[in-house]
Amino acid sequence: MSGRILGISGPTVTVDLKGLKLYDMVRVGEAMLIGEVVRLEEDRAVVQVYEDTRGLGVGEQAKGVNVPLTVRLGPGLLSGMYDGLQRPLERLREETGPYISGGRELHALDLERPWRFFPLKQAGDEVAEGDILGHVEEGPFRHLISAMENGRIASIHPGEFTLAGPVGTYADGRVIQAHQEWPVRKPRPYRRKLSPQAPLVTGQRSIDFLFPFARGGTAILPGGFGTGKTILEQAIAKFADVDIVVYVGCGERGNEMAELLEEFVTLSDPWTGQALMTRTIVVANTSNMPVAAREASIYTAVTMAEYYRDMGFHVLLLADSLSRWAEALREISSSLEEMPGEEGYPTYLASRLASFMERAGVVETLSGSIGALSMILSVSPPGGDFTEPVTQACLRTAGAFLMLDTALAHRRHFPAINWFQSYSLYERDMVEHFSATVSPRWGEMQKRCRELLQREETLREVAEIVGIEGLQDADRLLMKAAERIRLEFLSQNAYTEDAFSAPDKTLAMIGDILEFYDRAEARLKAGEFLDDVLKG
Amino acid sequence: MRLSEHIYRTVSSIRGPLLFVEQVLSVRVGEVVRIIRPDGGTMEGEVLKIDGRTVLIQVFGETRGLDVNSPVVFTDAVKKAPLSADIIGRVFNGSFLPIDNAPMFIPERWGKVSGFPMNPTARARPEEFIETGFSAIDGLNTLVKGQKLPIFSCAGLPSKELAAGILENSRLAGGGEFVVVFVALGLTHHEYSFYMRVIERMRTGFVAFINKADEPVMERLLAPRFGLACAEHLAFTRGMDVLVVITDMTNYCDALREVSTAREELPGRRGYPGYMYSDLASLYERAGRIKGMSGSVTMLPVVTMPEDDITHPIPDLTGYITEGQIVLSRELHQKGVFPPVDVLPSLSRLMQRGIGAGHTREDHRGIANLLYKHYAKGRDLRRLEAIVGRDGMVESDRMMLDFADAFERELVNQGGARRDINESLDTGIALLRRFSLEK
Ligand SMILES: Nc1ncnc2c1ncn2[C@@H]1O[C@H](COP(=O)(O)OP(=O)(O)OP(=O)(O)O)[C@@H](O)[C@H]1O
Ligand SMILES: [Mg+2]
């Protein structure tokens, strides 16, 4: 199907193609830039183009491809870095140098790399979509290859192969591939959704202890600039007890992505000892890369995450920052001259966000195993004002709200998670879990820790007026204990060994502080002076 | 591809810097056009948007005096910047025309004005120290090659003098070819003569792009891009370390808003366009280093915060893109401290990798952390002092107050003098010793 370009406005191009479906892929111009149909009119279609449209001319050709924007899924995605359209950035650099000039298509998967296939099914077996055919060893992972269609297997070949060729055939002649394509905007199917049960240990004490997060849950990290969103997301990417991490740098800095890559190559996963990069996929669409591809980047990422979830893995998707995605949506919407909603965002912002976040969860996969996809998403509210539309829309869906506080960040208290405003809807279940697995005292200690912080806040207001010297000894002691909680327990410098804290270490640390407080309080009651008590 | 230039006399309307031309065939976005004025002169513009045969053109010059009969020539070329090592030592206006009475140089090549995004996998980590000569920056908020670190100022604060100091005093620690690209946007006549004197005094290589307040708004949007195209050329074709100082980004953003309003785009916060984040990122993200190449582009934009408000969209979006910020304080300025850098809200996010043995000095991190910690303590106590009075405070707290004062007066404040990194750190050590705070 081919036609011509009628008009160009920013990232949107109008073409005279008929018979397209919404979200079909279209190639425009002599440069064959990739785009997606976002609006259909009687005799024309409006295409959102994923690359810089500068240089594109009216009258140039446009070709409909009849498939929606898809990603390639198969062995070899792990440890790769892709742009928002899943172009492998390392290979792109080898081919075109340090700058990205666009209009270039590269297969996300390496078709020449040899793999070994271990079939589970054999010739003659009837298989249904989603059934496991066998596996490939991808680093430390058993990468399951499942059937994409129903049918009877005619042949299936164990041993070495490349993705360029099939691993078998169906009786009716269709080939069986070990890789597939999937439309990014269509959630991958599963049998049913289960409710989150087990915790996702982040290694961050303030999260694990105060606002615990669940496998299959969603959390947002909103905070003004410099409040530590990126550092926290990256720390979680390094230390979380998950199988696989998909990290999306969505409209953020290039230097940060370079740093992440450089670090992840040298670090190892604290839970398995494997090189960290082998469990990681990075999607990088930095702030100066095309805006429409930024919009697509989170879908590209979540589809790859779902693919590994479907093998029964626990996958964590980290996105930094969802606000940049929302802004991309706004830019596209405004070039379509749609009616704007709040602060210029399209009115469908909230529903798009909600359906994106719905792709998280614990599921029973088509092959009957349990997989989970968790999401931790940063949000960058303008002016650090949390009443803005993106934060508010996220709040309606997210299970945990970890508010990063500018005042704490200015005091260099990191992670700057505000302990009064944040919450986790998973808290009750997870505390139960930690009580069973780490210590029965987990819940009680958590309560006491909260209480100390709360009472410190009240006392602080008094101390502001009368000076700390004006407080009673018992109150001064409490202030001291709360200060230790803040400085030693809740703060975690990402540049030190303390960047990761396992649950038993977390519990031991808070246990120490509470014990210090209890003992000191008893000595005060026995008549000792505070200064002596604090000396030890 | 067309073979020749097309001329149209079908301008249907002129609105601010925008021109609508009708009945145009085969034109491309970004194509450069020449508009012939009634007085015979020409000016350039660029195709912004195409709707069938109607073309929207953004004019780079002053549209005053144009009429609908003005012929428009479509050139079938996109806007390019002339590049050469011969630009060093030259001064241009916002249209890349020399204003230093010397003839135009002969370009080695032509480069895309807006550049291309750097592949993240090609970036090398910024970690080499650049010495600005100011203790509050070098000692406590260290700038490294490939970083973008803005200065957040307020109206009436000496950001001009600070920028001038950085232009004149910046050096590379390890040697190597160092060039400063200076982009000045919307200068008043007074500022213009100030900076021209600075340029005359400069001892390092420089290139300047000067756009005055009465010059076309569009040039304010172009000048930084020309500056960055030059910087990229000098850095990655010529292997030089380039520091780009842009002042004032607030004028840039106001120009962006003005043009956006003329285009009748939907205004965002405070009337600035919704795409301002992406637009600013397309400038700031051009800072960086590339693996396997020598040379670097480092950026120091100056932002004047309207109403002293750091949450205003201009500093806010800048902060969301850059790697830290140097914040100036009205209070310190009133105390006579120059540069009036408030080190508490200031931060260089890439400092950690650029200091210590092999970069600056082994004891750098320790000194910086101590100074910051004690100064923060002293500043906190000032609030208490305001309530209970100095006499109501314990001796140790009074000492911290004195430390904070001395820190501002002796370390932050340095007047017009340049300090190298050793002098900066030694000043810090002396201060800590005097108050017995070295550990
Ligand atoms: N856990 C931490 N430990 C030590 N320092 C930290 C930590 N978190 C943040 N910081 C400090 O704060 C700075 C800013 O952090 P970060 O880059 O994560 O902010 P951000 O919220 O992502 O900002 P932006 O919205 O501008 O991207 C870091 O460069 C570092 O100096
Ligand atoms: Mg960040």
Description:
The complex is a heterodimer of chains A (536) and B (439). Chain A has 536 residues and is α+β, with helices and mostly antiparallel strands. Chain A folds into four domains: 2-68, Elongation Factor Tu (Ef-tu), domain 3 (Beta Barrel); 73-91 and 191-425, P-loop containing nucleotide triphosphate hydrolases (Rossmann fold), CATH 3.40.50.300; 114-179, RNA polymerase II/Efflux pump adaptor protein, barrel-sandwich hybrid domain (OB fold (Dihydrolipoamide Acetyltransferase, E2P)); 442-534, Bovine Mitochondrial F1-atpase, Atp Synthase Beta Chain, Chain D, domain 3 (Bovine Mitochondrial F1-ATPase, ATP Synthase Beta Chain, Chain D, domain3, Orthogonal Bundle). Helix content of chain A is 33%, strand content 25%. Chain A contains 14 helices and 28 strands. In chain A, the strands form six sheets. In chain A, strands 8, 18, 21, 22, 23, 24, 25, 26, 27 and 28 form a ten-stranded mixed sheet that branches. In chain A, β15 (168-170) and β16 form a beta hairpin. The radius of gyration of chain A is 26 Å and the shape is globular. The mean pLDDT of chain A is 93. Chain B is of the alpha/beta class and 439 residues long. Chain B has three domains: 6-77, Thrombin, subunit H (Beta Barrel); 81-354, 3-Layer(aba) Sandwich (Rossmann fold), CATH 3.40.50; 364-434. Helix content of chain B is 33%, strand content 26%. Chain B is built from twelve helices and 22 strands. Chain B has helices spanning 135-138, 159-169, 189-201, 217-236, 249-262, 276-284, 313-321, 330-334, 351-354, 364-388, 395-412, 421-434, and strands at residues 6-8, 11-15, 18-21, 31-36, 42-51, 54-59, 72-78, 80-83, 91-93, 109-112, 123-124, 129-131, 143-144, 151-154, 171-172, 178-187, 205-212, 241-247, 289-290, 296-305, 324-328, 341-348. In chain B, the strands form five sheets. Chain B has an eight-stranded mixed sheet with strand order 9-17-16-18-20-14-21-22, with helices on both faces. In chain B, α3 links the parallel β16 and β17. In chain B, 51% of the residues are buried. The mean pLDDT of chain B is 93. Chains A and B meet through β1, α1, α4, α6 and α11 of A and β5, β11, α6, α7 and β22 of B. Adenosine-5'-triphosphate sits between chains A (223, 225-231, 380, 414-415, 492-495) and B (319-320, 349).
